[in-house]
Amino acid sequence: MEAEKVAKHIIEWLKSYAKNANTNGFVVGVSGGIDSAVASTLCAMTGLPTLCLEMPIHQAVDQSSRAHRHVQKLCAKHQNVTGQSVDLSAPFDNFKDAVIRDTDHPRNDLSLANARARLRMTTLYYYAGLHEFLVAGTGNKVEDFGVGFYTKYGDGGVDLSPIADLVKSEVFALGRYLGIIPEILEAPPTDGLYHDSKTDEEQLGASYDELEWAMAFQKSTQDDHHGLIDSEAGMEEQKLSPRQKEVLSLYLKLNRANQHKMNPIPVCVIPKNLR
Domain 3-200 adopts which CATH fold? Predict the structure, then answer.
């Protein structure tokens, strides 16, 4: 990947989109991870007003400190960037106290994790409304179009996605070119939505490198094999290793399960004869 040319392309795309949308700039949620660091840096490099929001919710100290150092660096380098921290721990606790009736429910932790993401989305759009900004997304291609590893109407609730056509390894490569701080480049990717700071790999069951391989493998074989790659026989035909079979099965399972996030909301079309 030609990082310099890709960066310039995204920056020009952001500027063009903002101009055509008749908006003033961007607001980006900064988490301390590589995706939000790269997305916010690209927004900053447009020269348009860019608000970088830190939105901790009982966040691990290392995550918060990485986010804060990144925002400080952007503010020092770009006059068009402002940083702000909005601690959402208390509003989240109030929400949790209001809704929880069964603390032992097996999906309680997942539902609360998604609630954190949606509370942050609401906060981003509050500031976007104040300043007539666009909410810039921070999802990458593997998350957004591969395994659907994001919260619908949470971190998936954005106006535009500057890095969603880049797989994770490309985001890291772009981050190195952009001079993202070492602490972020070296940190294990995590969504920061769980109290125990689970990494993305722990949640997904595979590394991003493995999921990138599965995504590319599926794309390269789906036309030739007419879907047979989804089956055990199809995998045997490709002479995959046991781990490759495991990762591909996991990828396909997540991809199918999360199509409702990736596809447009279905609309019930009324037949003409019923009107």
Answer: Rossmann fold (3.40.50)
